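Re: export button greyed out
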Amino acid sequence: MSAPVRLARNAIFSPPRVWAMVLRYIYLMRSSWPRLVELCYWPAMQMILWGFITLFFVQHSSWVAQAAGILMSAALLWDVLYRGQLGVAVPFLEEIWSRNLGQLFVSPLRPSEMIVALLVISMVRTLIGVGAAAAIAAVLYQYSILSLGLPLVVFFANLMVFGWAIGLMVCGLLLRWGLGAESFAWIAIFLVQPVSGIYYPISVLPGWLQPVAWTLPSSYVFEGMRALLIEGRFDGTLLLHAALLNVLWMALGALLFLYAFHVARVRGLLLKTGE
Amino acid sequence: MKLGRLPAGCGGRHNVPVAAPVIDVSQLAKHFGDITAVDGLSFTVAAGTIAGLLGGNGAGKTTTIAILCGLVVPSAGRVRVFGEDVVRRRHRVLPRMNFSSPYVDLPHRLTVGENLEIYGRLYGVADVGERIRDLAADLQFADLLARPTGRLSSGQRTRVALAKALLNTPELLLLDEPTASMDPDTADFIRAYLAAYRDRHGATILLASHNMTEVERLADDVIMMAAGRKAAQGSPAALRAAYGRASLEEVFLDIARGPALPAREEAAQ
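Workaround output, generated via the alternate export path:
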């Protein structure tokens, strides 16, 4: 029989438990090379596609010609949002696929620690995917996303956080409806795509839709990106709006996740999810 | 159905010191919509006891264990573990207990060693690697540590799940079908291991099982459930005597198939 073990203190928030979960997702990633390839595959394909579109439009559109990198920057930043959301939802789906939620929440792991672990692994997955796409843009089209300078960090952070918020909402749906809600993990983000002004200004949208667009942090980020690339100015107000909205969206996402967790406990779903 | 606990003197084979119960369930109820899974269940389990939770399919055993783990919120009643309200303060007791069930899995794509490492870290085990090696040696699966969990046989998986449940050397162990899918030899080994674990660490074990031989061999105390309620409680010998049966299985069948037997229940009071 083994020697007694020392137990960690029952902390309200335990970084070692967060690290345990991050480690779990790293082990999952490295256990399957096709999944690692998948992380880079779509961002890479998107970048190749938008690179060729850019080459075409530079010759046929004066608007794109003003700033040749505008479409590729938009595609890359969109991927930050998309990968940020998937980076939260897919690892959570892994728990459901492997019927592991019951085991996890019998351990001292708290839902808030799981949320933080999902956010950390989302950042890792996003950096891998978007990094690959950025490398392709640099090699094939001689366009470096780093040319955006320091504002890139602000754009990246805002889109990542908004992706996390949507990802947490999706996790809430998965907790409540299990694999019946799996499709939302893949499609939820496309609800905000048309109204985020990724490839066109928000002013293009119908008047009634523009107020909806301005409730999304992503709209401010892409407007800010265009201001930087076309007019050469960094509009701090736009990014401040995005950050403030992100606080609200993240709070909403986290609350929805925690509420869904409570409902799952009431309905006895933690042992059933995945079946 | 009248609920009863056998009198002192009809107890188990082990002399359990009188102390506050590790598990104290009072008037527990759980409804899932129109379905009543647990209906006014009350029982206690003393420290250092191995208690068996018996009942047919749908009797409410798994729901009861899930409530004790804090995975399910009861509709009514009180559940205390180590004196703490599990519903409101489950994080105070979770580090002191653990759980294993064939109805929850360990992730298939991770190796056995990786899975155990993750859970060891979640429980804050001091030297995870050493603890895993010790448990793997004890439970005879050291050669499986590098194998993906999904490639284990069901019996091997049950042993690994038990190792996961022992990682933090729990004071309270909740086991749902602990020897499911094991061959008789391995199942016998596991039963002996659990009994030795209790003796060595003074742990309390609550196990739900359909295996009457297992419960008869291991349990000091048996809680029989039917339709979400406690039908009887006592040591295997006392239950056999109260129901006039030769084996616990016959007692189980009496309870599962028939209505309440007032005379016998009274005898069991």
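The interface with chain B takes residues 1-10, 14, 16-17, 19-21, 23-24, 27-28, 31-32, 94-95, 98-110, 262, 265-268, 270-271 of chain A (CB under 8 Å). The button fix ships in the next patch.
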